[in-house]
Structures are given as structure tokens and as C-alpha cells.
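Researcher: Watch the backbone:
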Amino acid sequence: MTDISPVAVNTPAGRFLVGSGQPLLLIGGPCALESEELARAVASTMQEICARLGINYVFKASFDKANRTSITSYRGPGLEAGLATLARIREDLQVPVVSDIHEVHQVAAAAEVLDILQIPAFLCRQTDLLSAAAKTGKPVNVKKGQFVSPWDMKNVVNKLHESGSDKVMLVERGASFGYNNLVVDMRSLPVMRSLGCPVIFDATHSVQLPGGAGGSSSGQREFIAPLTRAAMAAGIDGLFMEIHPDPDKALCDGPNSIPLDQVEELLTRLLRIREAVGDTF
């Protein structure tokens, strides 16, 4: 079994750990903040489901999606308004929150609100951004770039460690396979766990077809369940899911989002797999 250093997440409702022997973590919510009403609905519903299932839950929604395919694509409400919305949801629901940071100047303000700072896949090698995130003392969740091998994520981990962070989580979200296509190499999960960090499987971005709709990305959400079952059997510490009440009407990443009303059934099945496999990976 890989020796994983648990990552402590301090939340409005207390502290929990991510790693070996710990409850499953779920990071989930709409791709981008659309309305506060929608965000609250997803966060409260998922909070209830996860409490029932014994899963640690963190609400996710981006205040700004800076890497959209088209300049006209919806990006979110922006730094100031988005963080204000996330702060209210965090306080009112007592639920931890995470969002993407894209630039160094966003880090300080984001760290005032967010319980976890997330580094997008396209930016996983940006040294200044990683260093600034590490210096906040907050857990840093790094998505492995589609262009990066799992063993090369050791350099990302080293950058964060050298910058003062021992709270690092790594996310698998598929690797580029030709044009407009991603594949998931399940070997990457134990490889990244061997770096000593908890590993999270991004169940929804892994079925994305980048730029597949011409002016936006497409996706194959029918493969979310089988890929997630495989990842759970391979051994992971957490899941990341983009969750929306009506993905076909989502303003961002709808084709690869899972409908809110399908999440509990999938999580219930996944926990059975986790129980059967045990913490022996």
C-alpha cells in the first residue's frame, strides 16, 4: 500500500482528512457559477447526499473559467462577485468551497474565501501560480495537465513542497489522444499516489471532448459511470464531478456534466466498490 500523507482540510463545520483510511472526498458542483440560486440548490442537495453516505463534500464552482474554447463562451461572474457568492454559500450552508485560480493576483483574495485552491490542468506547470498557492497554507488541488505524464507530476509536487506546502492533492482528468479526444490511463492513479499525495479522479472532465463542438467543448457523459467505477477499483482518495440540475442547459461544460438527480445512485454503487477493494491499493 502506498504511504499517503493525509491532507487536512479545515472547513466551516470542522476539519477532515483526505488520504489512506479516510472517508471518500467528493468535490462537486456546476462548472461555473451561473446564479446563486442554482449554486445553493446543488450545494445543499449534495451536502445532504454526502452526509447520508458518509462522504466528505466540498462544493465546487468556478468564479472565472479563463480557458474556455471561444472568447464569447460564458466564463462566470468574475473574481469579486464570484468569491462573494462562494463566501455566502460557505457561511450559510457551512459547506467548504473550492474554485479555480488562474493568475497570481487572484491568489490572496481567493485564499480569504476558499478552503481549497484548485490549479487548472492547463496551468499545472505554472511555477509562480503554484508557489503563490502553496504560500497561502491552504490545501492545493492540482489537475494533471492533459499533456503531462503521471510520473512527471513529481515536479509539480516538488514545486509546491519547496514553496512551503505539504497539503497537495493531485487530479487525473484524462490525457490528450489525438485531436478533440481524451483517454484515461488507469495506471496514472497508482503512479501519482506513489508520489505520496492523495489522488482524485475527475469523472466528468475525463469524458470531455475538448473543442469537440467547434466553438466549445463537447462530451460523452454516458461514460462517466464506467470510468468512475474503474477508477474506484484502481484506488482513489476522492472524486471530482461537475454536477448540474439540467446539464443540457448549463452555461459551461454541460455535455460532460452529470445530472444532479443521478449522483446519489452512482455514489452508492461506487462506495460498494470501495468497500470491496479496501484500502490496499
